[in-house]
Every structure is written in structure tokens, then in C-alpha cells.
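Key result, reporting period 2: structure in, sequence out.
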């Protein structure tokens, strides 16, 4: 592979997940001829228009940059084609690519996807895997086709998911894992030894985009299920419930199968280290909370401004 020609790469990506892959290609023997990223959007609590992480890195590296509003615009297609890319690399770009775009690079386009395909195709593969209580996930390098995340697979690598891990920690690791795997895929393509394996469509699952509404907990579920939702919906959109009429964001938890005779949602014990809550199966221990509009707090700090006693209960809404 050392003697094979380096590839000219057009990179499509937007958020922090894509940055390690762009950095890895920049550090490889292959060359980035241009970056396509989404237009600047309002972000964060203040909704200020800011640069996405991929744009910031591309600008710092002096790489040609395109931010099309519509991928079908003739101006974008002409500019993209003028890069004469051998291959397109996609990492969390955030839009479906048309067949016209896919056909422009000489070797087509490949994608860094944060799941072990064909499971968890779609927008939120890491979060959905954590919410489902999966014990393992990984990264797949796949060819981009018109159907969503359905292209043949080139390389995969796995990563365990710890029982207390949150989605952000898993996603950070997968970003680094995917970056290394992507460079290997480019080397194999350049050497003409890349192998592509079709996905088993009978095993395909879809990871729907997260919504704020699904953060509301149903205390009739098991403690394990609720714990997985809390860590899977972190750092956005967060799991939440209502206590004494106030929305409380639930940031960290643990659980056990201990039996309880209390109704689901009832707080059965309170101390500085946690709130113990009855569920539909087992008990949930809440360790970090956030009152709406306030900073995240330990239970000790939370209790200083929010008196809570056994017998209080989280309210269904």
C-alpha cells in the first residue's frame, strides 16, 4: 500500500464527530482537495450564528470550503466537480446526498457511520444503542448509496459500551476509532485491495432522530430502561420529569432490581448522595439533577434549594 498513489479526497462533514476523521486524513499521505459543510446556523442557548467544528478546522488549515444551501445548485455542483476528487468521504454531514453528487468523485463516496451496520442506520445511532442497553457498538466504513446507510460495508471495528457510560463518551471514542478506520479504507482503495460486503437487509434497524419530547420518563418502565434512557439522552435532549410542578432534568443515575411496594415515581429515600425512586421494576438512584434554567447539581446541592422527602413523587405529564 505504501507504493500506491495517494488519493485526492473531498470531505463532507459538519459537527465535532467529523473532526477526528478530517484531522486523520490531513495527517495521512492522502490530500484533502476541499471540504463541504453545512451553512452556519444559530447554535447553543443564545442561538448565536457560529461556525461548526469542521468549518473551523478547514478554515484553519486553509482548505477550500463550500457551504451549499442546496446540493442541487449548479454553482455548487460545478465547484465540487472542479476539485477533481478521487473519492468523497462523508462523516456526519447531516444531509442525504443525491445520485448526482455521489457520481462526481472518480471512486464514488464512502461514509464513517457510528454503528455496526446494518443495525442503527440513520441519524442517532450512538444514542439509540445506549438507550437500547446495547453492550457493544462500533464503526462501519461503507459505500454511500442513494438508500440511507444501506451501502456495502468495507471495514468495521467494535467498542464495548459500559453500563454507566453516556452517549457523548461513546460517541467521542467512536469518532477517533472511525478516523483511524477511514484512513485504512483510503489506503486499501488506493492499493486496489478494498473489499465490499453487502449488508444483511433482514437485520437492518433504524435509529430515528432524537426529539425533546421523548425525554419525558414513564416511571412505570423498569429501572434499567429508565437508566439507559437517562444516559442515552445525555447530553441532549436529556431525560426529564416533573417534581412539585417543576421540570427536573435527570443527568446521572444507577439502578438495581431491588423490589419495592411503592407506586412508580415515588421517592422512597433521600440522602446527600442520591434520590431513590420506585419504578415499574426495580429502583432508580438519581445522582445528578438540574432544575430548569439552573446549572447541573449533585443531589446534595440540589436539596439545598429544593426540599425533597420520602413520599414525594415524580409526576406523570
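The corresponding designed sequence is given below.
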Amino acid at each position: 500500500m505504501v507504493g500506491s498513489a495517494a488519493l485526492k479526497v473531498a470531505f463532507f462533514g459538519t459537527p465535532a464527530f467529523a473532526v477526528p476523521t478530517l484531522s486523520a486524513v490531513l495527517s495521512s499521505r492522502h490530500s484533502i482537495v476541499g471540504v463541504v459543510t453545512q451553512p452556519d446556523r444559530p447554535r447553543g442557548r443564545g442561538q448565536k450564528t457560529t461556525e461548526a467544528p469542521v468549518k473551523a478546522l478547514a478554515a484553519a488549515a486553509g482548505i477550500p470550503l463550500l457551504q451549499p444551501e442546496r446540493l442541487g445548485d449548479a454553482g455548487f455542483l460545478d465547484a465540487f466537480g472542479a476539485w477533481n476528487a478521487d473519492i468523497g468521504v462523508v462523516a456526519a454531514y447531516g444531509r442525504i446526498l443525491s445520485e448526482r453528487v455521489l457520481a462526481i468523485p472518480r471512486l464514488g463516496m464512502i461514509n464513517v457511520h457510528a454503528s455496526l451496520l446494518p443495525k442503527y442506520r440513520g441519524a442517532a445511532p450512538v444514542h439509540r444503542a445506549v438507550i437500547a442497553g446495547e453492550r457493544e457498538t462500533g464503526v462501519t466504513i461503507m459505500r454511500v448509496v442513494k438508500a440511507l446507510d444501506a451501502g456495502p460495508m468495507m471495514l468495521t471495528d467494535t467498542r464495548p459500551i459500559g453500563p454507566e457510560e453516556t452517549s457523548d463518551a461513546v460517541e467521542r471514542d467512536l469518532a477517533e476509532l472511525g478516523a483511524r478506520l477511514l484512513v485504512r479504507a483510503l489506503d486499501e482503495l488506493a492499493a486496489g485491495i478494498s473489499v465490499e460486503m453487502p449488508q444483511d437487509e433482514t437485520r437492518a434497524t433504524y435509529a430515528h432522530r432524537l426529539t425533546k419530547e421523548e425525554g419525558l420518563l414513564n416511571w412505570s418502565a423498569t429501572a434499567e430502561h429508565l437508566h439507559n434512557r437517562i444516559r442515552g439522552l445525555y447530553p441532549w435532549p436529556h431525560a426529564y420529569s416533573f417534581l412539585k410542578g417543576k421540570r427536573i432534568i435527570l443527568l446521572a443515575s444507577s439502578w438495581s432490581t431491588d423490589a419495592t411496594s411503592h407506586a412508580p415515581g415515588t421517592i422512597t429515600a433521600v440522602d446527600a448522595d442520591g434520590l431513590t425512586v420506585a419504578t415499574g421494576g426495580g429502583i432508580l438512584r438519581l445522582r445528578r439533577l438540574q432544575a430548569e434554567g439552573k446549572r447541573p447539581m449533585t443531589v446534595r446541592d440540589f436539596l439545598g434549594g429544593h426540599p425533597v422527602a420520602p413520599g414525594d413523587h415524580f409526576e406523570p405529564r
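The chain has a mean pLDDT of 95. The first helix runs from residue 19 to 26. This case is discussed further under Risks and Mitigation.
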